[in-house]
Amino acid sequence: MTGLRLPEADERVLARREEIVADLRAIVPGEGVIATERGMRPYESDALTAYRQLPLVVVLPSTTEQVAAILKYCHANEIRVVPRGSGTSLSGGSLPLQDAVLLGMGKFNRILDVDYANRCAVVQPGVTNLGITRAVEQDGFYYAPDPSSQIACSIGGNVGENSGGVHCLKYGLTTNNVLGVELVLITGEIVRLGGKHLDAGGLDLLSVVIGSEGLLGVVTEVTVRLLKKPDTARALLVGFPTSEDAGDCVARIIGQGIIPAGIEMMDRDAIAAAEAFVNVGYPLDVEALLIVELDGPEAECAHLLGEVEAIARDCRAVTLRVSQSEEERLGFWAGRKAAFPAVGRLSPDYLCMDGTIPRKELPLVLSRMRELSQKYGLRVANVFHAGDGNLHPLILYDANKEGELDAAEAFGADILRLCVEVGGVLTGEHGVGIEKRDLMPEMFNEVDLAQQLRVKCAFDDKGLLNPGKVFPTLHRCAELGRMHVSGGVLPFPDLPRF
Length: 498
Known about the structure:
18 helices, FAD, seven-stranded antiparallel β-sheet, oxidoreductase activity, FAD-linked_OxidoTrans_Type4, 2 domains
């Protein structure tokens, strides 16, 4: 990605910058428009911090009507728009463009309605993931998706990336826990998809929008599903002499028909970093650690704990500890959720990858990653959702050392190719963004990508929303409308590739 290319800046838009800023200030008065270099600097990057670009201007609307007016103006004037939530995207999904309006949704931070009768809540997209649970936990409810960044990441971003978390194995990702959205199209039209009711008939456009990475519209309201807190939750901390043993244990648990609330795995480097960070009693003499959580009625949990313990011992577990209190259970998870920042102690920089594989391939993929680590001369710490095969290898490097960023990116690309090779996919929850954009042909052929682009064109006829993300080849919607692929020959070879 050091050769990263984004769409060429539109010189006509750049030349009209002062006029555009003035027009946007008429739509969002007061402090809602940021146009100085110093003021825009905090928005130049997201959590993929290796890449930075100042936007044309930053706009911070506070109402749906303002969002609609901004998008309508940008559509009429052919100005690109990059939506941004909390800026925690690890795939560069909200990386600005030089000629684009950065549309920040941070002021949409209210919980509008909590409806226990319908087991749902209506929230604005700037509400943090954890903020929903905090608002309803006193009544015994919670919001199930819980990414490690849940204290900071926003619901709008979760919708954009279809985020998951440590409990997605049993309770699903964002798409399984969102009932409806209010969406503003690039034309300024406000539409509603879904709502407090269960699944509607007709085309499932809600599922198209969830995970669309800001390419189809801007979400201004989200209806989420609330769940009742389970009667009992117990967690096991299980250490293994090899990562292959831990991977085998995961496969056997699922193969036995047991669906835990979550199964997380960390390797030796990640264990040491997390334990030094939170001091929760992780064993430091093992190569791999599993956290297995079971929840539900007390009798069911007790039975399944015994089943999982037996499977773990058959897989050569060398340490096994069961949480005896809620405080201890939360302590187990505190280490896992702090693993990403904790790994920052091991290296000045790291790339957090995100790919998903079939569970049975865990031992093979972990072994191949060790080989790649030796090939590139870089360490990798593994922290991932083992239960659903969603890997998060953390490639450690030092950006101040010549060539290490290039090596880290090549290492990461090989890991993602490996995921596809064994029957997996390029992303589980972080999205494609710019990080995996040029790897999309590893998974999709030209016909597949063209069909996906046609969906975007149906929502965004001028290609103004978050351009340069997800799709490796730039096509114009009019050209896609008459595109034919024959014999594997790439149509429109004169169009630039990013």
